[in-house]
Amino acid sequence: MPSSKKNKLCFFAGSPFFQKEQLKNTLEPIDDCEIESFSAEDFNPEFFFSFINSPSLFQENKAAVVKKTDKIKGAAEIIAKCGECLETNLILLSEEVKIGKEISKALNSAGFEILIEKKADKYNLRGKILQMFTNAGFKIDSASAEELNEIFQGDLTQIANEIEKLSLYFAYKKPQSTSEIMSAVTARKQDNIFTFIDAFTARQRNTCNTLMGRFLSNGENLNILVALLFKRMRDVYLFASLKEQLKENRPWMLEKLKTGIRAWQKEDLFMLYGFFAELDYKNKTGQISVENYVTALISKL
User: Fold this and answer.
1) Per-residue pLDDT reduced to its tens digit, 65-84
2) Residue 207 CB partners (closer than 8 Å, separation 6+)
3) Counted domains in the chain
4) Separation of alpha carbons 249 and 252, rounded Å
């Protein structure tokens, strides 16, 4: 029986950070939601329409997230048909902020809410960065916000990753100064800790070894790396074991967890979990350094 509730039809165009923020704001209020991601690279119209026009079997709500919508062949025609969807919340994403006439017409005729990111100057970006740190419970000054903007070349996604890293690192001890916060920030964007974590999740040993060498050269805080890596691999293990029960409303994280499941057998994840515990004990009792801790983890890839 078709659903009688009103589903959301949204189109968000802008940077990856803007898309991520809008996705979060849209999906978080939707309880018990089954989410499926689609992308232009392997878009299958038949599967897409089958998904959005059928009710969820096990959850109360459904959502379909389509990435790079503007790159899909026949995008305007597909979008126009989405207006008939009754069963699924639809979120269409695009990095291209200049919408073509055909797609714009299709979005309007189908009843989509359209939100396009406005280009920000460096002063607006500085204010945004200050607000992001404030929202996470950190206080930095304007000069530091401007420095971060320069380090990451205005890439708010990378800055958000740094804030996530800091939130875990300072979970049990508050930073005493802006300088303490800045010293914990990754020095080079291309050597970001999350790149290592994604590579470890996919069991890419060579990439991890290369990044490890750079971390050591740059004086990266490896304690933060270990804490975040453990959290990621724990989530992969839980997702592999309790997929139906685990609620995960972040499509970008779902993709990372699925990558981990494809790369790791459940038995290997269980053994890795125990290896983490062994190494953590040895590190905290002074038997091994954090450098050797990470090197030992890489050896398991």
Assistant:
1) 999 999 999 999 999 999 87
2) 195, 196, 199
3) 3
4) 9
